[in-house]
Records
---
Amino acid sequence: MNQIEVIFNLNGRETKISCDPNKTLLDVLRNDLGLTGAKDACGGEGECGACTVIFNGKPVNSCLIFIGQVIGQNITTIEGLSLKGDYHPVQKAFVEAGAVQCGYCTPGAVIATKALLDRNPQPSDQEIRDGLSGNLCRCTGYNKIVDAVQLAAREYSNG
Amino acid sequence: MADQLTTIGKSEIRKDAWQKAAGKALYTADITVENLYYGVVVRSPHHYARILEINKTAALKIPGVHQILTAEDIPGEKIFGPLVPDQPSLAQGVVRHLGEPVALVIAETRLAAQKAKEEIKIIYQPLVPVFDPVLAVKSDAPQLHKGGNLVTELNVQDGDIKRGY
Amino acid sequence: MQGFEYLKPGTISELKKDLSTPGARILAGGTDIVPKMRQGIFTAPVLVDTSRVGALDFIEDQGKEVVLGALTTHQKLADSPLIQNVNPALSAAAESVGCVQTRCRGTVGGNIANASPAADTIPPLLVYDAVMYLQSLEGERTLSLEEFIKGPGSTELNPGEFIHSVSFTPLQGSWGSVFIKIGKRSGMAISVVNASAVVFLDNDGLISDTRIALGAVAPTVKRCRETEKFILGNEPSPELFNNASEICRKEITPITDIRASDKYRIHSAAVLTRRVLEQAVEQARERKS
């Protein structure tokens, strides 16, 4: 299998790697780039959302994307939300609302929330649940996550 | 007094929430070390059965497989248990519940371990199981352990009912 | 995950060439293919990534027809005001596929090519008599969506051939088009049963034309033509739709699988048939006034 060279924009920086084309973006993030924020909680079937990243502004499951598909594209991972050491409003909201328990779903849910609020800054309760329907959580029962999104939405609108 | 309370009546933020929200918290799957191997457990498909043979030959040929361990490979104590040590780490000659660990495959990748697990050939002789604790105490029940099926008997008594009522 | 040779054409003519490589298969959004490759169910010695072929990503109102490029994502379909107007059933179906992450990657071409009996975008296209436009190095051809799907996971696509686009004619007059699906949960669910219907009302309020499609109840999405014939020419009423829902039971052959039993599917298909017809009539009446 011939390796491919992939150059893409990762968290605002141009990133270059060479690897087998049958690696997914999730594989590369976790194993080659040391970015373990995105998680695999369903065996790479795109069923849990723990691997969610932002791809050209849209939330996607990184376990379903072959690495060649990101050539020349923009990817933001959970690590990209606190690059300078301070926390993104959505991260703060999750922490303050008590929406973090085991934390395994949290990076995916935070990213999905950012994508949702970027698209719809004032989502209704139903729109929040629809927007995060791809992010499974075994711990919280989802209500605190909805609270976190609502808190983040208020912070977003306050600037 | 109330103005001296620093925790009671207040909402506390989890100590690890910030790291988790930042994607920086390290879970087991996030940690890589040199010479890391992956283990997969081979489990019994029977409720109660004798193990007649474990054949690892084909499984050991799978590329990346390092070892396949069974009970005989365990140095030291092979059995544990809180009240009575009767639970083998890996089954010895007999399996006593569905899913009891029989062998441990160790390989360089999870995939290799999975593949090897499928290649292990274990021959079982299924025995008649017992599922009901009331039946299990009877003398004619299948005896799962040398000392019988009764782990222990505890008699709990306290107080004087006649006096109390 | 199996290894493969990875090709990434940038134009339709490059795609035609790459796809005629022996063993070449198409990669679009990857939401169906990647898990299948991981499980070893789908293999491709050569994988042709179409993500750079922008010419296949479009939603066009061409007057007589609305044309969807094969690479149009479900999210784009769901967000499109044009589709919400001309095919509300398709808009609803696209919105219901998986979750937002799936919708941002999965494509209508991929959904059709995957040919699951439970596919959500197929019933709303079938009731619009959608047409498939296929291309290859050898040439091009069109055929109806109904002819295109042969069985579960099986289509008319020949090696080297790809879906360029799918088109349908916007409806005229007083019409309603509806899609409903039920699954084991309200989000991120594969349809246990889905249904789509189009109903036309004439000036007297009678049903002048209707098309009904049921999914996940047969090897392919089923047009329920007996049920359609039964309803034609009649005045919409609860009794009519109850009777219709009984007839559609005989037109489907659901199986029992991990998601539901055949009995549950038969019952649900009848209920959904009644519901899509009722709602389509309501829509048609609103459109009239």
---
Amino acid sequence: MKISATVTLKKEVLDPQGKVVSQTLKNMGYDSIVNVRQGKYFDIELNENDKEKAKKIAEEICKKLLTNVVIEDYTIDLK
Amino acid sequence: MKSSVIVFPGSNCDRDVAVALEKFQIKNQMVWHDEINLPKSDLVVLPGGFSYGDYLRTGCIASKSRIINDVIKHAKNGGLVLGICNGFQILIETGLLSGVLLRNKKLRFLSKNVFLKVINVDNKFCLNYKKKDIIELPIAHNEGNYFASKEQIKKLEDKNLVAFKYCSEKGNINKSTNPNGSSNNIAGILNDQKNILGIMPHPERLIDPLLAGEDGSLMFKSLIKSL
């Protein structure tokens, strides 16, 4: 089973890289840009066919390794 | 006194800290991150550097390495643990110290000398300093911006767990003397039991007059005195 996880900084945490990207896009003439937040994306291949079990494993690895729950949020997508 | 310096792939201050420990007659051993058993030690040092190339988050991968289980055991049993720079970041990722270290506010890698005020001298790392002493140590980091929730910062301050704060040469603590954006100018913190210290500046780099100063020596002298 394939799983994807997206990790982003929590809304209240300053994201300097996102800010720079946002400013650069505005400088390039994209006036409609309001805000950009930068994150990380993980493609995970899992040897597990049970959807529920796979989701549980994905939750666990997100909490234990892929995110620092103090400052980051994650979303999981099962394919 | 016996110490162990844990070496990770990408550590680059491990030898500097070993030289400092040995200078003060602390019997040191280098321990590779992949070892399972920690040799008998009074002090464990997590050195500065870029363990695992700072992949994922600074200190993150190192905090899951095999030796860390024994380091956590050592810490929970009251053993001394000193994390310098990347070592501080690793301690944060293991959960032994609270909060997080974000990227420097101005997004620049900082490499310069800074002034620090010693806030807590009631711990084994700072016995030889006097409260409110102003010392000078080098910093060299990209992620040293200490951040925690307001409640956590208040807890650190109330329980007197902040060991060092960035200040001016005269000891003023304010925004202009904050190099990286850390909450309350925090440069180093202790755990509740005060046997673990995480610090961004590098005491091991100022241990000899030939290296332009000795302000770091007092920390190593404190450690010997503590036993």
